[in-house]
Amino acid sequence: MIEYLPRSKQHTELYLTQFGVEECIPSHFFGPAIRSHFLLHYILGGEGIFEVDGKRYRLQKGQGFLIYPDVITYYQADSVNPWSYCWFGFEGTLAELLLKQAGLTRESPILTYDKDDKIYNYLKLMAETNGNGNHKARETRMTGLLYLLLSVLAEYGPVTPTEQRESRAEIYVEKVKEFVETNFAQKITIEDIARIVGLNRSYLCSLFKQQMNTSIQEYLIRMRIHKACEMMQNVELSIGDISRSVGYNDPLLFSKMFKRVKGTSPKHYRTENVE
User: Fold this and answer.
1) CA-CA to 117 of 20 to 30 Å: which in 69, 153, 191, 259?
2) For the domain bounded by 2-161, which CATH number is listed?
3) Does domain 168-273 have CATH number 1.20.210.10?
4) For 126-157, how does the pLDDT look when each residue is reduced to its tens digit (9 = 90+)?
5) Which residue ranges does the record assign to the HTH araC/xylS-type domain (predicted)?
C-alpha cells in the first residue's frame, strides 16, 4: 500500500508527501539514489541494511532510518529474513527541527522505538482518513497525525548533543523567556512564572539574573514595550488599545513604563516613528 499526496498549500510548516507499507521479498533493494524530501522508514518485522555517508547499519524490528533530502542512500532487505516496513515522506519548514528534537539528523539517522505499535497505528489512521469527501479536513487531520508521530519519537528519542551541553540554568531561563513571550498580554506575576517553570521564586529570579543580567520583571516590561512598539505600526489601534493588548489595563501605567524604557511617551514615539 502506498499513497502519494499533493504539495500542501495550507500547512507549509509540516505536511505529508507520501506514506505506505511494504513486505519486501528477500534481498529487495533500493538505490543508491536520492530523495527530494524527508523519508522515515520504520521496520515492522524482519531485518536489512541501510547505507548512507559511507556507513552501514544492520537494522531489525523496532528500528528505523531517516533519509535526508538530496542525500545518496541505499537499503536492502535481508536474504533470509527480509524486512517489512512502513514509511512516511514529508516536507515543511519545521520538518528538520522536529526531527532534531527526536534525535534524528543526517549524522544520526537511526531510530529505535519498540514500546508499542503507535507508529504503525498512525499510518493506519492516515489511510482511514481517505474517502471522507473533504480534502482540506483530511489534509489537516493527516498533518496532525504526523505531528503526533514525531512527538512520540521526540518523547522517547535520545538526548541530543545540544541538550547535553545546555546547563539546567539555561533550560530554566529559556522556559521563562518562552512563557513571557507567549503570555506577556496576560496579568502574569513572577509567582505564576515560577510555578509554571517548577522552581522556587527566589531561586528562579537569581538564576535568571545571573544568565540574563536583568530581572524577570524587567524582562517582562521590556517585552511588553517591544510588542507595543510593533503594534503602533497599525494606525487603527489607539494607544489605549495597545496598552490593553500588552497587559496594561491602566493607560497611565503603560505610559509610565513606556517612557521609562523608550525615554518618550507612547504618543510622541508613534508620531516620530510611524509614517
Assistant:
1) 69
2) 2.60.120.280
3) no
4) 888 875 556 668 888 889 999 999 999 988 87
5) 174-272
